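Field log, afternoon session.

UNIT: design team B
ACTIVITY: writing a sequence onto a fixed backbone
BACKBONE:
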């Protein structure tokens, strides 16, 4: 079976790319190993700079019907301190503000949109082999019953950053470090987190965030170092690891404790890791990389979904602009260089800012030294949100009779 493009992974990056290319008339195969809907460890917040894309993708209405309230404030919960400041708003005609939506809903919206636009969805289906031929990439995929061969002119890796697999772009074994970060995430009902607030949680050994998402749930996601997690497992040996992490957060963040005092856990905790933030290749051995596979920011800035979708738009803009050459296999290297350069200019500053914020947050002395300044000038939180990319436009999106930039 021959396709113009084969996309591995149907998260926000892969789903966005499949939908955009299918709408542009490309034949697309979208390969996803998991059944949907499925939950993911993710902060779930989507910046206002990405929301114009939802109109272009054709999923704005269901998104706004499902998503949580507009996020108008950023906050900081650490120790006894509770600070708030305005969320920066990008300049665009709709004056949109960011919202949160569970990945089980967002990923399904994108997947269904791609299928409706004409993409072939292979799910659940795992890539077991990929090699480059003279005209096509040859990809062997395993379904529940058989093995199929798919061929494509263009291959896009949107498989995340830490799972192993058959692609050259997928994770290789890494050595273990005490500073490795493990991520946890859960939803809660009946919480007292103010509507429209998204606080950053700072606690010994890690950081986290909270936001109101779909169905009036509060999403709590966090990262914690391996050495601190080991200590919590010893200290709270009668609890599951995630429950010990939650107890740790509530002890060291009074704001989080108060917000969750009446909260009821919705479903089980999710966990992942170790995560590996950083900048990676965007084009490797003829394969284009998207989302966390290309580069991953520390979750402290809540930009993962936005970066994934924006990077997909950026790549598709280049591929469609070089469509004739790309589908003949002649222009892949050129597109790869242009996309890599544009990606670096747009996202490398966010990743570096996120690394700075994360390292400061996980150093108690540094955090303690900065806290008095934050109390005097809480607007620094707004500045930090701008620095993380929440008001910066990346790519041009036609919309109606005017042009938005996301």
């Amino acid at each position: 079976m021959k396709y113009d493009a084969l996309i591995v992974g149907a998260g926000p990056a892969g789903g966005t790319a499949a939908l955009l290319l299918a709408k542009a008339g490309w034949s697309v195969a979208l390969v996803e190993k998991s059944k949907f809907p499925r939950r993911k460890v993710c902060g779930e917040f989507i910046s206002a700079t990405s929301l114009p894309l939802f109109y272009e993708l054709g999923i704005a209405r269901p998104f706004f019907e499902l998503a949580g309230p507009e996020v108008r404030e950023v906050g900081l919960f650490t120790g006894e301190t509770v600070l708030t400041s305005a969320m920066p708003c990008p300049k665009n005609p709709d004056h949109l503000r960011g919202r949160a939506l569970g990945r089980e809903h967002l990923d399904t919206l994108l997947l269904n949109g791609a299928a409706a636009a004409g993409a072939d969805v292979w799910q659940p289906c795992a890539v077991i082999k990929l090699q480059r031929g003279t005209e096509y990439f040859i990809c062997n995929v395993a379904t529940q019953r058989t093995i199929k061969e798919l061929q494509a002119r263009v291959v896009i890796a949107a498989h995340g950053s830490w799972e192993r697999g058959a692609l050259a772009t997928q994770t290789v074994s890494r050595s273990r470090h005490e500073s490795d970060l493990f991520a946890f995430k859960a939803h809660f009902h009946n919480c007292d987190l103010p509507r429209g607030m998204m606080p950053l949680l700072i606690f010994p050994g890690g950081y986290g965030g909270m936001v109101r998402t779909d169905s009036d749930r509060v999403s709590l996601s966090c990262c914690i170092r391996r050495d601190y997690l080991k200590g919590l497992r010893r200290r709270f040996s009668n609890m599951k690891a995630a429950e010990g992490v939650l107890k740790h957060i509530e002890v060291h963040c009074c704001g989080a404790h108060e917000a969750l005092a009446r909260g009821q856990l919705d479903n089980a905790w999710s966990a992942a890791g170790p995560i590996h933030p950083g900048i990676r290749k965007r084009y490797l051995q003829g394969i284009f990389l998207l989302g966390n596979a290309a580069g991953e920011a520390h979750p402290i800035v809540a930009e993962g979904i936005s970066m994934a979708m924006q990077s997909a738009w950026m790549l598709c803009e280049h591929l469609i602009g070089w469509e004739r050459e790309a589908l003949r296999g002649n222009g892949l290297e050129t597109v790869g260089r242009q996309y890599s350069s544009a990606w670096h200019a747009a996202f490398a500053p966010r990743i570096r800012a996120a690394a700075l914020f994360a390292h400061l947050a996980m150093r108690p002395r540094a955090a303690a030294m900065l806290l008095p300044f934050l109390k005097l000038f809480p607007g620094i939180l707004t500045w930090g949100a701008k620095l993380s990319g929440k008001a910066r436009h990346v790519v041009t999106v036609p919309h109606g009779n005017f042009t938005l930039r996301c």
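LOG NOTE: Confidence is low (pLDDT under 50) at residues 399-406.
NEXT ACTIVITY: expression trials, pending approval
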